[in-house]
Amino acid sequence: IPSRLPDVGTSIFSVMSKMALEHGAINLSQGFPDFAIDETIVHLVHRYMLEGHNQYAPMPGAPALRQIIARVIRETYGHTVDAETEITVTPGATEAIFAAIAAFVGPGDEVILFDPAYDSYDPAIRLNGGVPVHLPLQYPTFAIDWDMVRARITPRTRMIMINTPHNPCGVTLGESDLRTLEVLAEQHNLLVLSDEVYERLIFDGQQHHSVLRYPMLAARSLAVFSFGKTFHATGWKVGYIVAPAALMQEVRKAHQFIVFSVNTPVQLALAEYMQVPDRYLSLAAFYQQKRDFFLEHLRGSSFEPVACKGSYFQLLSYKNISRQADTAMAEELTKKFKVAAIPVSVFYQDRTDNHLLRFCFAKKEETLAKACEILRKI
Ligand code: PMP
Ligand code: GLN
Known about the structure:
The protein is α/β, with parallel strands linked by helices. The protein is 41% helix and 15% strand.
């Protein structure tokens, strides 16, 4: 039986985390926090379970959770969404992305995405028969070249995918990017799939430019978010997607047959937990401090940082250390020096190798300090 994805192996995140474990390396590869989550929310989940909230949630998500999400979106982005028809809770952003693509991308439909791209985008497009059109972000700024985008739009272009703050580059899109996208999407009748899982992890006083801030853009966008990032619980796999009702109706047709619904007690706990704004507003300062701690402790190292404006990833260039391929460098770093990172070339369709490694700084200070002590000596 022919494979639908003959070129796809195991995700780099599994590969590097396994290697880190086997070689006793400090794992700064796969993106997840190594510190405890707030006990308050753990107790809430426990309480909801004990109270008997253990059966299927409604297909689009627990109403209480959708209501608080709608309120936070209104307060954060000045955008009014109907909790009933325009928000769907999903098992992480991954399924939200897949369901959005399954709903709108069919055989031969082209989807524009930017490399380096998060690893689930391309296979999700292809599994649904779509044609991924990979365009490189400009090097070394990792900005979008909008002229290139304009030149690559065809009558088959159905969707354009953006990601801000960006994984793995840590760059953010600004108002002019969103305005340009708004015009292009309108002119060519495109849908926009906007991956905003790092919306709260944004640094140096910037504001996050969500598609939801731009009414004309929001009218043709599917925006994806993840509680895994915001509340340090990647293992809970809960996120959500926001889209106008007519689009959401189609997304739900796919979602209901991919997973149907998301676990009930965690949704109810999240709904209660989110009532206190500081719990999500404090994220930017929290992670900015971690970024700065990591960079400070790297001072004097031969690794060169690329500016990180958001997300919990720091790119480091190793050009001054070695000219070997980034996959080989990541392997050597993990096995010999005991610090695991992600080679960035795996996020490029053509495996462009700029000698960059991605380090996750969502870690305890002691973990970061230990890793930096090693990195400074290389
Ligand atoms: N998009 C991006 C850019 C991500 O970094 C991640 C998580 N690493 C996801 C989507 C998936 O999020 P989730 O774990 O909520 O499925
Ligand atoms: N999003 C996380 C990262 O970029 C990993 C997610 C996963 O392991 N699938 O590291």
